Amino acid sequence: MLLFYSLDTILLIIAFCAPLSIPLRLFYPTLGSDLSLPTEPLLILVTGIYIFKLLVDRNIPKKIFYHPVSYIILLYLLWMFISAMTSTLPIVSFKFLANRLWFITSFYFLASAFFAKSSNITKYLWVYIIALTIVVLITLLRHSQSQFSHQTAYTIMKPFFDDHTSYGAVLAFVIPPLFGLLYLNKSNLKYYIFTIGIIGIIFVGLFFSYTRAAWLGVALSFGIWILIKLRIKFKVFALVVVCLALVVIPFQTEIYVMLRSNKSDSSSNFTTQFKSMTNIKTDDSNVERLNRWSCAWRMFLDKPITGFGPGTYMFKYAPYQRSWERSVISTNTASLGNSHSEYLGPLAEQGLLGLLLYLAVIFATVRTALRVINKATNKRSKLIALCLILGLFTYYLHGFMNDFLDMDKVTALFWGFTAAIVCLDVYHFDEVVVE
Q1: Are residues 315 and 92 in contact, defined by beta-carbon separation less than 8 angstroms?
Q2: d(C-alpha 67, C-alpha 258), whole Å
């Protein structure tokens, strides 16, 4: 009944269930494919009903569909369909496309309709964060039984998360929005104290996740916040990045030698763990990432136009490994993850245009958020847009080292935050909101 008469309620149920979802393979280990329960079956149903309603009612929300971010997302999906048509493994690619379609339909297009009411954005954030806090408390309780050891940190969050990297990425994702919620609750002492408690739990969880990329993502979001506060224009920021690249490239050999001399391995010591981020000689996870990235680049060079097909990297990368680049954890079956990059993965699987369209989604989202932050007259919208884009920046950085956009827990935030920013621009730019 809710699926037909209250998709908004179903969306909140999915947002709450996402951090708590568990894989189907937990019950059927021999299955060839996997689903997150109960979220993905619900997402499939929601997608079907949403598309059916659009076709029957023909009531397309033009303000959202005609927004630049939506245009680029639709082009992104169209190119994914084209690259699936030319895929080296069509069945794999169309399954990947279907997965991406129900994530984007639910967490972007359906969520956009839900976020037409401003208060629903914070409601969505809270239901997700409360469920995530439950996961963190369970994880910390189990982790404490091993004295928060570094080794058990890798898998202690199962079955809710596959490993500590995706767990850390999600924790980093919600930290900037939590500070926004704290500010919004400053006049209500009870909720203010409650929010401080949630922030403390999330930070403790992040620390004991031992996820270096997540730590760095939070630090980056703080740096981006300073740049936004200084009102540094996006063009200037982009120019600085290009200039840094032009300086770094001529000295890449010297930088590589310096990184090879770093022998700090992953450990439970915070300083050593942070230093190990640049150890590309003895840190197995770093060495393996470089191996996967090199494979992705060679695959792109072989098929630069349409790539090997969405979702095919794990089945095709093995022949592109080089013996001198392999690590002690290297495999030929991608049992330890995919390409470990949200940027090189699309490059290998969907060619140059696939990567450019993904980057265009990011660029358009950032531009939209900055427009709201700098020009909107609605102060609440400015604050929410700031917190959401800072949350997204933690993942934009994390995407250089891992790829989790095939997970409901991450896409609920990635596409949900993107949808909320678009809605702030479309519906709540000059609106006077009375809560």
Answers
A1: yes
A2: 46
As a whole number of angstroms, the distance between CA 310 and CA 270 comes to 37
What confidence tens digit (pLDDT) does each residue in 177-229 have?
999 999 998 888 999 999 999 999 999 999 999 988 899 889 988 988 988 88
Query: Alpha-carbon distance 225 to 220, whole Å?
Result: 9
User: How would residue 31 be classed by pLDDT, with cut points 50, 70 and 90?
Assistant: confident
132 CB burial (10 A radius; 0-12, 13-18, 19+): buried
Sign of the CA dihedral with 270 first, then 274, 279, and 284 last: positive
Predicted confidence (pLDDT) at residue 151 exceeds the cutoff of 70 = yes
Q: Which is nearest to 214 in space by CA: 178, 175, 165?
A: 165
What's the CA gap between 106 and 115, in Å, rounded? 12
Give the other-Cβ count within 10 Å of 248's Cβ: 11
C-alpha span between 200 and 186 (Å, rounded): 16
| 283: exposed, middle or buried (Cβ count in 10 Å: 0-12, 13-18, 19+) | buried
Kindly write down the DSSP assignment for every residue of 23-74, as one continuous string. Answer: EGGGT-TT-SS--EETHHHHHHHHHHHHHHHHHHH----HHHHTSHHHHHHH
Which residues are registered as beta bridge partners of 176?
none
Alpha-carbon distance 18 to 46, whole Å? 15
The average pLDDT across 64-75 equals 95
DSSP 19: H
Residue 196 three-state SS: helix
